[in-house]
Specification:
about 425 residues; alpha/beta; 5-stranded parallel sheet; two-stranded antiparallel ribbon; about 55% helix; globular
């Protein structure tokens, strides 16, 4: 009896061992499957979040991504001049395309000089999501990190802000200077300030002159630019003596000639030789030209800082589109397409962007050819001295060198941003 009993015990023990091994194997397999499923779920969730953030079609129609951004248009032309007039046109076009989505961007106002902070050396500004702000000649002389905080921060945590999109309207400094001269010497002048302003006076921002604010950045040889076909090299944009030489040149012309001791700025423009009048108006315009150079550098640095600290662009995104007003004048359709593509992305179809850009081009060309008083800001084609005055200014010893380097800086940034874009739109608007 002992033998069969011992055998039964051994069989029972072996069955227990096998059952234990089976349960253990099942647990291991189930755990692995569960782990794989969890990892896969996490991956899919992350992809879903990123897709939700990046793809406007994945966001509900009631609150598309478009209104999560703040939009800024920067220009350097006062009153009715080209940049200001074009800014108004762009705001109108952007908001008219938003009608189909139910609500436009709210337009905000900023006064850079009134709100200038002498401690930070930047204007105190805030840009809420769902707004569009036009700024003429912003004062952006603060540190790169502080400027980043101005552009990306938002005081209301209940309003999520994904980032900011900056449309930077610039112009070749030589064409800006000549256009400015021809615009203000018109009879009658479109702007009355030329009857009372001394063009040689150094304007102040807070307690600073523009030289105080801009010289530390523009005189440092930290930028690689290509000047007049030379190989790119690191060099400064201006020298400190450039600011003094420009002021001295203006003082040598203003109210110094016989019979003009009490003449106004405008009377000088009507009476002086065009080359002298051009130098005088360029002195007056130099503030805007210098500000443009400062902002080109500052916005580039902030964009690089944001990109380096936030490579995935999930939150705190910053995009800058630098658009030449000269291109808007000569190629209005392709320039408007670039604006639509930058602002709207996939919110508008490709066909819609092209069609509406061509419609704008036709409208602009009709207005440019008309002589209605409302189009006085359009000087293109109205003066036959433009090419000669640009050539004169390039060779002029006081203005030529700094304007040439600012031109090179502008061309460098426009080239960086246009790589790939020109080829894509060339066939559409040829």
């Amino acid at each position: 009896m002992a033998g069969p009993k011992r055998l039964k015990m051994r069989v029972a023990f072996l069955g227990f061992v096998l059952a234990t091994l089976a349960v253990s194997f099942a647990i291991v397999v189930t755990s692995r499957k569960l782990s794989v499923d969890v990892d896969r779920h996490r991956q899919l969730s992350l992809r879903s979040i990123i897709s939700h953030l990046r793809d406007p079609k994945s966001v509900t129609d009631k609150d598309p991504h478009f209104w999560k951004y703040a939009y800024i248009i920067v220009n350097y032309h006062d009153h009715d001049k080209s940049g200001h007039a074009l800014s108004d046109i762009l705001v109108k076009h952007i908001n008219s395309n938003l009608n189909q989505f139910g609500r436009p961007l709210k337009r905000m106002k900023v006064q850079p000089r009134r709100d200038f902070n002498s401690r930070t050396k930047c204007s105190d500004m805030s840009f809420a999501p769902g707004t569009i702000t036009v700024i003429g000649g912003p004062e952006l002389h603060c540190s790169t990190k502080h400027l980043r905080d101005i552009l990306l921060s938002h005081p209301d945590p209940k309003q999520p802000k994904w980032g900011v999109k900056v449309i930077h309207l610039v112009r070749n400094p030589f064409t800006m200077a000549v256009s400015n001269y021809n615009y203000h010497k018109q009879d009658p002048t479109p702007e009355l300030f030329v009857n009372r302003k001394n063009p040689c006076d150094a304007s102040k921002v807070g307690r600073y002159t523009l030289k105080d604010l801009a010289a530390p950045l523009l005189t440092q040889p930290k930028l690689k630019i290509r000047v007049q076909g030379q190989l790119p090299k690191v060099q400064s944009i201006m020298k400190r003596e450039d600011f003094n030489n420009i002021a001295d040149d203006c003082s040598s012309l203003y109210q110094t000639k016989p019979g003009m001791e009490n003449a106004t700025f405008y009377e000088h423009l009507r009476a002086l030789d065009p080359t002298e009048g051009l130098r005088m108006t360029t002195t007056d315009k130099m503030d805007n030209i210098v500000l443009m150079a400062v902002d080109l550098i500052q916005l580039k640095r902030v964009r690089e800082l944001v990109k380096a600290s936030n490579p995935n662009h999930i939150n705190g995104d910053m995009e800058v589109k630098t658009i030449s007003i000269d291109d808007f004048i000569h190629q209005p359709g392709s320039s408007m397409y670039q604006l639509y593509d930058f602002v709207f992305k996939d919110l508008l179809s490709e066909e819609t962007k092209i069609t509406r850009s061509k419609t704008y081009e036709q409208s602009y060309l009709r207005e440019r050819e008309s002589h209605h008083p409302v189009n006085k800001h359009i000087t293109y084609g109205k003066f036959d001295n433009t090419a000669a005055l640009i050539e004169y200014l390039r060779g002029e010893p006081v203005f030529g060198p700094p304007l040439t380097k600012i031109e090179a800086l502008l061309d460098e940034i426009l080239y960086e941003e246009s790589v790939g874009m020109e080829r894509m739109i060339a066939g559409t608007f040829s």
